[in-house]
Write a structure and sequence with these properties.
Blueprint (H helix, E strand, L loop, with lengths): L14 E2 L9 E9 L2 E5 L5 E5 L5 H13 L24 H5 L1 E3 L4 E7 H8 L6
Antiparallel strand pairs: 1-2, 2-3, 2-6, 3-4, 5-6
C-alpha cells in the first residue's frame, strides 16, 4: 500500500541507499519536522525526537545542505506518497547522493551510515 505522507497510518522506516559512490552501509532515513521538533525514524518501531538544541551536528549539516540545494518549493505532505519520498527528484544531483533531499513540506530523507544510525539509537528521547 502506498500511503500518503500526511496519513496517520504512515509508518516510515529507513531504506537502503544504493549508490556506487558510497559504501553499502548507508541508508535513506526519514526525518520529519513538526513544530520545533525533529523526528528521525530509525525503523518502524524506533524513532528519536530532538529539538534544534540537541539535534546531532551531522543531522544539522545534512539539513543545511538539503535546504540550500532546494531550488523548488516543497510539495505538500498530502502530495507525496511513502514510496515516492525515497526517490529524489534529481537523481543526478551529487548532493542528494551524499546528504539527502526534501520530500515534502515537513519530510526529509537524510543519508546516514550504519555508524550514525547506531549513534542515534543510543540517544534518549529527552528534549
Amino acid at each position: 500500500m502506498n500511503t500518503s505522507c500526511a496519513s496517520s497510518s504512515f509508518s516510515p522506516a529507513p531504506f537502503p541507499h544504493f549508490d556506487e559512490s558510497l559504501a553499502s552501509d548507508y541508508w535513506r532515513v526519514p526525518l520529519r519536522t513538526l513544530d520545533d521538533s525533529y523526528i528521525i525514524f530509525l525503523n518502524e518501531n524506533i524513532k528519536r525526537i530532538f529539538t534544534s538544541e540537541n539535534l546531532p551536528d551531522f543531522i544539522k549539516l545534512a539539513l543545511a545542505f538539503i535546504k540550500a540545494s532546494s531550488i523548488t518549493s516543497p510539495k505538500a505532505d498530502s502530495e507525496v506518497y511513502e514510496l515516492d519520498m525515497f526517490l529524489p527528484e534529481d537523481k543526478d544531483n551529487e548532493l542528494y547522493k551524499e546528504s539527502g533531499w526534501r520530500a515534502s513540506d515537513s519530510w526529509f530523507i537524510v543519508i546516514l551510515s550504519n555508524y550514525q544510525i547506531n549513534e542515534l539509537a543510543g540517544y534518549s528521547n529527552e528534549a
